[in-house]
Specification:
Number of helices: 21
Structural class: alpha+beta
Strand order of the largest sheet: 7-6-5-8-3-2-9-10
Bound molecules: adenosine-5'-triphosphate, magnesium ion
Number of strands: 24
Helix content: 25-40%
Length: 627
């Protein structure tokens, strides 16, 4: 006997046996073949369970006339070929315990029997180590020797030939073909180490070579853009591991057509999982936009029931909460790191693997650029990255453009000790080259900050960016306990509506956690006595009014837990620098450095981007400048 091919997953293959009746009754019953793509899915499951390394799918007329799936897996022994076509006959489980811990794609022993009942099926197989191959005709039961290398080919012809009514329900060949290719793609995304090719009417439609990295397969089977516009996810929470890639908010689409979720290698659609994903994107993606992702959850098979639906597309987790939390945290963590420096430019698209897969341990999540910024200031913590209140002098940029009465927002004042060279014209210094968002050059129309980094030009929407910085800062403070407040030297009083007065009284206990002190001054007047330090530059009355309006909509006792983020987002909007405020170069640089150090700073609180990169290549193209 020749050596077993390396593709064999487990040498202790069990013979194909009919399942006992009590086990059959436990298995989710129902139709599995709806259209050609269902056959493709079942045959691919079988090929992968057999340890295939290379799978070739051949289709004719959208799969209706022919579906052939050829693999180089372990094959089926001659004497078991006939058994494979019987209902409830499988080599994959033998007991209830096996069913509860099943690790293979198949376990029902139903697929081949179901396909054989509605189409002309034949199996050609050579068992690993056997001298010859045999072909079984599913209709006549005839078995004859054929020439074939180790592995199996299943051919399915004339789907629904005996049920013209069902055949009528099929769509055009082009549509059925698209579904078949999608079925192969789903399998291919689960198993990068396996090569796949798809032929239709003699033409090669898709070919994905075996890859040693998941990113490679994602780039091949989805697109380079998918990889370039997504971040690596790698998370271990309790018994659950979540890996893969989550699309950045910018890459979101109007349709949910690039959402792939796998549980132990099986493509699934599951409410717990999709809700967890949705909630992870809640803070960065607004409206109806659909995130793109390819996520892979691994969990002890005994903690997930795959025997819920006959097509196995649904699963049930023993502990749904645990899974929900793991998925949510995995994506939130991955999206939180600012991506400045990972600019999604054509250059980045051409080398899709610019971002290494980082291990799940703490600090490894930070971006290289961010580590540098932190190290530069000699401090790793978030607070230390905030510019100190230096009293408004702006070294290196001449007289302050701020009228005496209208000081620059405190958060924008340049940090003490910012290298003087930061404002010098000319080539970027080594320090500046390491700043992902580059060195500020100018302000445009009072709205945008223009900056230069090693890749080209950066354009920042300063209000949107600052709003996110303030918002994240408020969130961090509130997570700690309460938002740090700053008393006003002279309380700001305003004529309040009865509703506002009532809300201020009802929320007297909640307001301090938000860093606010608002007390009745007279029956129709409220006084703002303290505001959050972070928002000290905003208009205290405007801030008080919008917070009271928001509080009035909720039950005061629970609002901070339930509507916390909306509330903070409203507050942040008031604290963020407004359009048309002129900033000095140092203030602009301070904002850029804060963005680099702030989680989720690539999107404003409403999910819009805060910055864009225009690469030198794009600028050259604009001017038709060859290099
Ligand atoms: N490509 C293949 N290579 C090797 N063995 C195969 C292949 N396809 C089918 N078999 C064998 O035939 C048996 C029956 O296949 P079938 O798809 O009907 O059932 P299953 O995979 O066990 O369960 P399910 O109905 O859930 O798919 C399998 O258990 C397996 O032993
Ligand atoms: Mg099967």
């Amino acid at each position: 006997m020749s050596a077993l091919p390396s593709s064999i997953p487990s040498p202790q293959r069990r013979p194909i046996r009919e399942l006992p009746d009590e086990l059959i009754s436990q298995i989710a019953a129902g139709e599995v073949v709806e259209r050609p793509a269902s056959v493709v899915r079942e045959l691919l499951d079988n090929a992968l369970d057999a340890g295939a390394r290379q799978v070739t799918v051949r289709l004719a007329s959208g799969g209706v006339r022919l579906i052939s799936v050829e693999d180089d897996g372990q094959g089926i022994p001659r004497e078991e070929l006939t058994v494979a076509l019987r209902r409830h006959a499988t080599s994959k489980i033998a007991s209830l315990n096996d069913l509860e811990t099943v690790g293979t794609m198949g376990f029902r022993g139903e697929a081949l029997a179901a396909i054989n009942a509605i189409a002309e099926l034949s199996i050609l197989s050579r068992f690993a180590g056997a001298d010859s191959a045999f072909a079984l005709d599913g209709r006549t039961g005839e078995l004859r020797p054929v020439a074939r290398a180790a592995g199996t080919t299943v051919e399915v012809r004339e789907l629904f030939f005996a049920t013209p009514a069902r055949r009528k329900f099929l769509k055009t060949d082009a549509t059925e073909l698209a579904h078949c290719i999608e079925a192969v793609r789903r399998h291919a995304l689960a198993r990068p180490e396996v090569g796949f090719s798809v032929w239709h009417d003699g033409k090669l439609m898709e070919q994905w070579r075996a890859a040693d990295r998941r990113e490679q397969r994602l780039a091949d089977a989805l697109s380079d853009d998918f990889v370039a516009q997504s971040v690596a996810v790698e998370y271990l929470g309790g018994a659950v591991r979540v890996a893969g890639r989550a699309g950045i908010p910018d890459a979101a689409r109007s349709r949910a057509d690039q959402q792939f979720f796998y549980v132990n290698g099986r493509f699934v659609r599951d409410k717990v999982l999709s809700h967890a994903v949705r909630s992870a994107y809640e803070d960065v993606l607004h409206g109806q936009r659909q995130p793109v992702y390819a996520l892979y959850l691994e969990i002890d098979p005994s903690r997930v029931d795959v025997n819920v639906h006959p097509t196995k597309i649904e699963v049930r987790f023993r502990d749904g909460r645990e899974v929900h939390q793991a998925v949510r945290h995995a994506i939130e963590n991955a999206l939180a790191a600012p991506r400045a420096g990972d600019a999604v430019t054509p250059a980045a698209l051409q080398q899709p693997f610019f971002k290494p897969n980082v291990p799940a341990s703490g600090a490894a999540w930070a971006q290289p650029g961010i580590n540098f910024v932190a190290a530069e200031r000699g401090a790793g913590d978030f607070e230390a990255l905030w510019p100190q209140r230096t009293g408004g002098s702006n070294p290196g940029s001449g007289a302050s453009p701020w009228p005496a009465a209208e000081a620059a927002p405190a958060a924008f004042r340049a940090p003490a000790g910012l290298p003087a060279e930061s404002t010098a014209p000319g080539a970027l210094s080594t320090n500046e080259q390491a700043w992902p968002l580059g060195r500020a050059l100018a302000q445009l129309q009072g709205i945008y900050i223009l900056a230069e980094n090693s890749q080209g030009l950066i354009v920042v929407d300063m209000h949107a960016a600052h709003e996110r910085i303030v918002y994240e800062r408020l969130k961090t403070q509130l997570d700690g306990a309460a938002i740090t407040s700053q008393p006003l030297l002279i309380p700001a009083t305003f004529a309040a509506t009865p509703q506002e007065v009532a809300t201020a009284e009802a929320c007297a206990a909640v307001l301090p956690t938000l860093g606010l002190e608002i007390t009745p001054f007279s029956p129709r007047t409220l006084a703002v006595r303290a505001v959050p330090g972070t928002l000290a530059d905003g208009d205290p009355v405007e801030l008080a009014r919008s917070v009271l309006a928001e509080l009035a909509q909720h039950d005061a006792s629970t609002v901070v837990q339930r509507a916390q983020n909306e509330l903070l987002s409203t507050m942040a909007c008031h604290g963020a620098v407004r359009a048309n405020r002129r900033l000095t170069i140092d203030e602009m640089n301070a904002l850029l450095r804060q963005m680099e150090a702030t989680e989720r700073s690539d999107q404003c609180n409403h999910g819009r981007p805060t910055w864009r990169q225009l690469s030198i290549r794009e600028l050259d193209a604009l001017f038709m400048r060859g290099r």
